């Protein structure tokens, strides 16, 4: 029985590093932001590499969902799905999400915004994904068990503890292979990787947690402040190990 582990994050989090950890398992396959092409196609947003992403991806969300729920190769215990919550546009039916094993990955919005504006000139609360994460949390909680919420800062203070908790949740044995990986790109990386994944390509494991001094001004500061209540809502129910 294959577990379809969907980790729902916003941008500029540790989501790609977490995908690396799971991909380093021999019993796991991964998919990188499968709804991104649909998101860019529908919204018309000008992200770095926009045309490449659309050309390389699938713009019909129904086809994407069929693949996410479809067959996997023999011997695969975990189908790890790295998702961005802001990719869940209003036109996408959401019933299929309940068929996945879902986890929310959050990060302090000031840190997210500070990182985000280094790659894009503008940012809005919806770009950060926290409002959408709260909506998804409430929907999943209303239909059954609320999904675990992991804060990136907590995770980086104790990667092994959180990985062990996730492994226990999906019913697989933890392995030390999840704590380190070879540097460089992967075939599984989205075509947008050259614009966003420089730090992950240099990495060989999770970066130790460190306090960050973040200075924001103007619209960036307003966006971070607007996202603060959503972050606090999820931070209050986060998983602690």
Automatic annotation (TrEMBL):
Gene3D superfamilies tied to this protein:
P-loop containing nucleotide triphosphate hydrolases
Q: Which domain of life is it from?
A: Bacteria
Originating organism: Thermasporomyces composti
Q: Which residues cross the membrane?
A: none
Q: Which family does this protein fall into? A: Belongs to the class-IV pyridoxal-phosphate-dependent aminotransferase family.
Checking Pfam families in the record gives:
Sulfotransfer_5
This protein is called Sulfotransferase family protein
Q: Which SUPFAM superfamilies match?
A: P-loop containing nucleoside triphosphate hydrolases (SSF52540)
Q: What GO biological process term is on the record, naming one? A: carboxylic acid metabolic process
Identify the PANTHER family for this entry: AMINO-ACID AMINOTRANSFERASE, AMINODEOXYCHORISMATE LYASE
